[in-house]
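Objective 1.3, modelling of assemblies. Example input:
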Amino acid sequence: MVVEVIRTEGGLALQLTGEWRALAYRQIDTALAAVDLSGAHRIEIATDRLAALDLTGAWRLREFVRHARAAGAEVAFAGTPPDQLRLVDDTLRPIEAEAEGTAPGAVKGLREELTELPAEAEVATLTFIGRRAVTLWRDMIGALAFLGRLSATALGALPHPRGLRPTSIARHVYDTGITAIPIVALIAFLISVIIAYMSAQQLRGFGAEIFVVDLVTIGVLRELGVLLTAIIVAGRSGSAYAAEIGSMKLNEEVDALQATGVDPFEALVLPRVLGLVISLPLLTVVADLIGLVGGAVLCAYLLHMPLDQYVTRVSQAISATTFWVGIIKAPVFAVLIAMAGTHRGMQVRGSSRELGRLTTVAVVQAIFLVILADALFAVLFMEIGV
Amino acid sequence: MIYPILEVCGLVNRFGSQVVHDGLDMEVREDEVFGIVGGSGTGKSVLLRSVLGLQRPQAGTIRIEGHDITQLSGGALRAVKARYGVTFQQGALYSSLDVLQNVQLPMLEYMQDLSPSARDELAMLKIRLVGLPADAARKYPAELSGGMVKRAALARALALDPRLLFLDEPTSGLDPIGAAEFDELMLYLQKQLRLTVVMITHDLDSIFRTCNRVGVIVDRRMETDTLDRIVEHPHPWIQAYFHGDRASIHLKVAHGA
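Predicted structure (tokens):
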């Protein structure tokens, strides 16, 4: 028990006991709430047997006193009121006094102050759509400006090859390219297995199993090799770029670079973009190669096709442009992925939550842009007939 | 009764072959401000992390209000952690929460039966107590100045009304006026709330203004004494620390010379 209640003539005597601490709030709260104030004109509170009273306890006691006074009772302390109560009073009274001036009987002055603070504004649907449209538009302008600044930096750096920071580029080629080889190879292999299996099943009905080779070869070289590689790299390196640059922004490292007179575009963005422009085509070559090997393994296993026949069929199936049609897309995808990552990274400011949000945006956008560009390439290649 | 609210005995911390603490003893008594001083790399932060139960020492006991936290885990350790408040060097405010929510987070963890309005008011009480204006409550850490971050961190450390407060470099990064204000605030709260404060600091002004006793980490152990007497300690590092150019002004004042 933390409160002992004794009914006296026309009033109550409360004896507070035990530890009135924040961690015992539940007990204190229930005990005070249970005090029956009806018919009590005078309440005397004795605190001499309290073992401890902290601010949380004092605040709850003060709430009780206010509640009792509002109910018309006269509240007094036996002896001097505890210091903690005075401290709570001194801290809170200025706010409540202000609230009192505006709203009479403002027992909940603080509460009002809190609700008056600017909360999240309610946004009507129309405003929401409008706001989104403007944000989207600004985003596009921002991305264009970013591309422009990147190109200007690249052109400016061209005359001085050291300005391109070859060491930094090499590091990014390693991080985004060499270390990605195992996963890219595995996925390329599995994809060619899937195509071979699926097409073998369909083509068997026509007795045209030999065309499995055509499908695998053209599918991997023209489309899937580069597209899947780009999507893996977008997930791996697009996010890494955004997170790296974003945390450098949060840590004021980007400001430090700028203060040293180093252009962050030249030192952070350009090497990453160029690194990916070098590594993505190379990864695509690996993916193409492993894709063809996967096709060979499947054809030997599934269709009992000897290797030399597979090789002959492959060279018949592809034309001079098949490989190049695929590989030409890689640098374009690389620029899109690297731009999405670095641009979003540079937008991070304020909090770690922003970092997470923008990293997500970077990856989603990179994958979207890659697929969109691939569709545009498909239309373009059909128009020019390759 | 004066009993040690925090007692560290024979603490050993080792990382690989590097020995940070080798039989370190520390005793903090109730209602005092205890300063921890030491050169860079002497393991002040490691000591703090051990005492907070964030890292288990290789040997030794650490008692907080009598509970040996090196032997505790799970719920029992959590219960001890509710009894102390900490502010970290950079504030360590949760950047995705505003100041009010930062202060309420410990309450949400340990005082589930608090109603939302009571929680708001108690958090506001703490925010006002550390001298922050009411409109700071809805601000995010990124929008606060360095001094306000330190105060908000202090408000969060006081959320559960602990008796024991750990401050890691509370005045670092503040200008001398801001640092002096923070010292005064800390002393005021220490007296009003009867707090025991353990403070890691490099700030000589702070030490001379606030500390009752000082523990200096030298040679992987701690030399503890009252402020008047520790400055006379013969160890060369302590001599260099308290008798360097930057400290001499305080000594003159302290000795009335």
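Chain B touches chain A at residues 82, 95-96, 100, 107, 110-111, 113-114, 117-118, 120-122, 124-126, 128-129, 134-135, 137-138, 140-142, 158-161, 192-193 (CB under 8 Å).
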